[in-house]
Amino acid sequence: MYVVWGSTYLAIGIAVDSIPPFFMAAFRFLLAGAILFAYMRWVKGERVVRGVWKDASIMGALLLMGGNGGVCYAQQYVPSGVTALLVGSGPFWFALLAWLWLKGPRPNAKAVAALVLGFIGLVILIGPGKIISGATGVPLIPALVVEVAALSWSVGSIYSKTVQAKASPMMMSALQMLVGGVLLLGAGYLHGEVDRFQLANFTAASMGAFFYLVIFGSLVGFSAYIYVLRHATPAVASTYAYVNPVVAVFVGWAIGGEAMTPQIIIAAAMIVGAVILLSWPGRKRAADKAASAEETQGAVVPEVEQSLP
């Protein structure tokens, strides 16, 4: 999940270079969802029980329509590495939502320090001048779209922790991708992408990136993420956010020819450092988790084995 999703930011940027963003994301998820659904339904024999479509629809809207759709739109204007760093604010939203929604512990001094450090990093990344005058830095509106997308993704991820499991992670992934794809088609229609969706205009690079996203970004990466959400805490599930930006910045620079400026390096260090600080458990907390895991290992392992595809 770390490596594949880190590289998908560049793939999205290449894909939307000639394919309209919402339609690109829509067909990506419709194709991947159809393949995964067919495999789970007719090869594994899993049936969709009552109530699954409701949860899949809500998560598909939040994770794929709001989360991935916003990123695809913004990457028309923002480099892939910078987009990944902006999405790196996800753990901050995770921490706040886990406290306010799941009634978790109130953020302590370390968490507050991490939130402040990460916020300063985001300001540096976007550019103080852009925020104040709109004159310099990353385009402000696309940057804000990415932040809304990160919030939507976090809300969807937290919601997934509150629902009762009625399908395997793989089937749930398929249903979410199908719903998300349909919603993204609607967004593309409203965005006026019908006239621009011309196969003759798609470059070979964009088409290659599209199929990379279908196979690795969706079938492999998204299914892995749903599995992690089912069997890990929100803090653990969000750890991808401090690996993905590093991978994305490096891939964007090494393969995509994107700039690696001092501003980006400083902002990246602050954002990634803040996420690590936020996610890293204290000594006592880590010991308590280890003891709890040892006590419950016999009960957890069978549940995980039953959920494997």
What does this structure look like?
It is built from 14 helices and no strands. The two termini are 17 Å apart. It is mainly alpha-helical and 309 residues long. The longest helix is centred in the C-terminal third of the chain and has 28 residues, at 204-231. It is 76% helix and 0% strand.
What's the gist of this structure?
Helix content is 76%, strand content 0%.
Task: Give the CA-based shape.
Answer: globular
Sketch the major β-sheet. none
Tally the helices: what do you get?
14
Give the beta-strand count.
0
Query: Rounded to an integer, what's the Rg over CA atoms?
Result: 19 Å
Q: Output the helix-strand order.
A: HHHHHHHHHHHHHH
Roughly what fraction of the amino acids lie in strands? under 5%
- Give the mean pLDDT: 81
User: Structural class from helices and strands?
Assistant: mainly alpha
**How helix-rich are the residues, as a percent range?**
over 70%
Q: What is the subunit organization of this protein?
A: single chain
